[in-house]
Specification:
Radius of gyration: 18 Å
Structural class: mainly beta
Strand content: over 45%
Helix content: under 10%
Number of strands: 28
Distance between the termini: 29 Å
Order of helices and strands: EHEEEEEEEEEEEEEEEEEEEEEEEEEEE
């Protein structure tokens, strides 16, 4: 079976008027059951995991065509590209491993054994480590990217899914689906500093560029929990569509985009900007989309 990946041309982060100009510019046939996508830092390629195809489709964004398809492990789900664009880390849910793709030749350089049922993956801003959530054994594997070996394994909440690392690399936020919580890992010692209760079955997580807030999709609750990272508490809960799955924050920090799996929509949440007691709201909007979303960075 061949599925398709939709490319959207947008002006995210510029308010409702600009967002109305978002449009589909191409639909690219890829492998079976595309699950996640990561874009290289220079924007030249997109790496799409094909869960039932046991492969990764590499899309050249200039012409929006598949340049090559890379065989990986069983049921690949998550993917993250290193900050220098040299490698892509792919979680193989059925294989208990991570495939490391060298982007120059688009071949698997090595396969790293991790925990049981790996799903999410995030690479630190300096590219030194990759954090992998293992949904079946309630842990996070920390891969040292220099030698591509697991440096440590961190116990977290029940059934961890999405993971995101702050821009300064100091913390990793892990959404624990069954645990209805977010584990906050201090990356210096790789220990859980705190656990924040959120909504029903949290799945995706994204952090604002300034690190002040973490946005967590509650798949079973039709909402997004907004965590105040300084206070380590939920500041507010935002209703969105049905089955919110993935979330991404725009590079300018003005909006969070949420992919609602069960009703084929994308919700756009305006992120206010505050200086002391003075706040600026950029407005909010909702548009249609299809399937799980992707990350901006």
């Amino acid at each position: 079976m061949t599925a398709a990946f939709t490319m959207v041309l947008g002006m995210a982060g510029m308010g409702a008027a600009a967002a109305a100009a978002d449009s589909v510019i191409a639909t690219v046939p890829v492998g079976d059951s595309p699950s996640w996508v990561a874009v290289t830092p220079d924007g030249s390629h997109a790496y799409v995991t094909n869960a039932l195809g046991d492969s990764v489709s590499v899309i050249e964004t200039t012409g929006n065509t598949v340049a090559t398809t890379v065989p990986v492990g069983g049921f690949p789900v998550g993917v993250a590209v290193t900050p220098d664009g040299s490698r892509a880390y792919v979680t193989n849910f059925d294989g208990g491993s991570v495939s490391v793709i060298e982007t120059t030749g688009n071949t698997v350089a090595t396969t790293v054994p991790v925990g049981d049922g790996p799903r999410g993956v995030a690479v630190t801003p300096d590219g030194s480590r990759a954090y992998v959530t293992n949904s079946r054994d309630n842990s996070v594997s920390v891969i040292e990217t220099t030698g591509n070996t697991v440096a440590t394994t961190i116990p977290v909440g029940e059934s961890p899914r999405g993971v995101a690392v702050t821009r300064d690399g100091s913390r990793a936020y892990v959404a624990n689906g069954v645990g209805r919580s977010v584990s906050v890992i201090e990356t210096t010692g790789n220990t859980v500093a705190t656990t924040v209760p959120v909504g029903n079955y949290p799945t995706g997580v994204a952090i604002t560029p300034d690190g002040s807030r973490a946005y967590v999709t509650n798949f079973g609750g039709g909402s997004v929990s907004v965590i105040d990272t300084a206070g380590k508490t939920v500041a507010t809960t935002v209703p969105v569509g049905n089955g919110p799955f993935a979330v991404a924050v725009t590079p300018d920090g003005s909006h969070a985009y949420v992919a609602n799996f069960d009703d084929d929509t994308v919700s756009a949440i305006a992120i206010d900007r505050c200086t002391g007691s003075l706040c600026f709201d950029f407005g909010s909007l909702t548009g249609s989309g299809s399937g799980p979303g992707s990350a901006f960075s």
